[in-house]
Amino acid sequence: MSGIGARPNDHVVRSQFVASLDDQSRDWELVLRESHHRMKNTLTLLGASVRRDFTRAGRGDVSMAVDRLERRIVAFGRLYQLLSDNDDPSMVSVAPFFENLCGALSEAVLEPAGIRCEAAIESGNLPAAQCHRLALMLTELVTNAAKHAFPNKSGALIRVDLADRHGAWLCTVADNGIGATAPLQGTGSRILEGLARSIHAKLHGEAGQGGTRVTIAVPAAV
Q1: Rounded to whole angstroms, how far apart are CA atoms 114 and 106?
Q2: What DSSP assignment string belongs to 176-222?
Q3: The model's pTM
Q4: Which CATH superfamily is domain 11-219 in?
Q5: pLDDT at 1
Q6: Distance between CA atoms of 198 and 193, rounded to whole angstroms?
Q7: According to the model, what pLDDT value does residue 8 have?
Q8: Paired strand residues for 172
């Protein structure tokens, strides 16, 4: 991950252990809140890209703008199918699931904003519940970076790394943007922390001149 994310001496913006969440009704309400929050944010991004495309398009380019819009809507549909298809109680193959997720995020959210996405996903398996909660968290982090990390910045890049290290899955989302000046705040932060509690995960974030990097450590078994 050289070249993006925080440097070793960067300011730590979030480092926190999170505990278990036993109340199943609260857990389900958390997922519902995340779904509503995610829908609001992604529709905002979609609306912004549509306005940009149609403002720039001349008469002869309108059909191309419509085609791009159609592809993005299809990509959003694929993204939400991945995030909502969590009824399978079995194990999920990590590499194909998260490669597909990163592809949908790139096509639906990042490419229209001129942001490149790189992903390095190791092979392995996760229980379906852990896998889908981690996917919700990853989506929140990537979308948040797309919205806030790159004001008027060229060469924008978000990198996702997911690897099994010493009995825990480490998922890192790093960008080469302006660097966060404070911990994640608001609804997105509360949702991330609640989702982390629900899978016994640990969150750690850093930010500096090299950008922002957030790592989620998920135990291999809970």
Answers
A1: 10
A2: -SS--SS---HHHHHHHHHHHHHTT-EEEEEEETTEEEEEEEEES--
A3: 0.71
A4: Histidine kinase-like ATPase, C-terminal domain (3.30.565.10)
A5: 47
A6: 9
A7: 41
A8: 161, 215
